[in-house]
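A sample follows:
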Amino acid sequence: MQARNADYSQLCIHTITNRPWRLEEALENYCSRGIGGISVWQNIVDKKGANETAKILKQYPIKVVSYVRGGFFAHPEKSEQQKAIAENKRLLEEAAIIGAPLIVLVCGAHPEQSLEVSRQQILKGIEVILPLAKSLNIKLGIEPLHPMYAHSRSAINTLKQANDLAEKIQDSHVGVVLDVYHIWWEPDLENEILRCGANDKLFAYHICDWKSPQSDFLNDRGLMGDGCINLKSINTWVKAAGFQGFHEVEIFSNKYWSMDQSKFLNKILECYEKLY
């Protein structure tokens, strides 16, 4: 049964969470339940094109919170680095068309080079695309990923590293995306969240849960409350950091993708209401 008597105006759901739905289905269901935000994944725009996606989004009373995902700057081949730069510039143009104020950056890594080299390439990549981001007034959010992804997805693996990188670039358009799935385990998490907020660098906040055990470390995320993440404490720290943005549900789950998506959405709302 759908959760009742709850305010979902600060709830955002990523389109990947309800992956089986077409964009129109997701929008219809989110808006009918009073959900305030949507984060659009690149596969949606790849299917429809940015202009058509924007036209559909404008028909619904919902805020586009972010465009997911850019990044993947790290590669041992110079030509591949340049391709990544070009791809991120294209994504920035698409973000502007669909009205997304933020691009989430999964920064990249490569198993054939050191993490230090990958981090240098990430820094350079962000600096290269930053002028276009500023001209379009789109923020770049560095998302640290769990260390299990350090070999190929991201060499930025802790909130401290993300904070360090954002502070090194020193621009108001560059900040951090906090996803509890990736950073819940960090020993100094509270201080790093507060640090992020003090520097006005906390751009987005993604929620889900870490199940134990998991059947798949990529596609078996849990609903909030299903796992071992101390979401209530993290919520308290995020609030103390001054964050007033959307709480974004981002769940990759073969289990939940295979079920009726309306029932899955009701489960999301029930879990959200219990958490807040």
User: Anything to note?
Assistant: The chain has eleven helices and eight strands. The first strand starts at residue 11 and ends at 14. The radius of gyration is 18 Å.
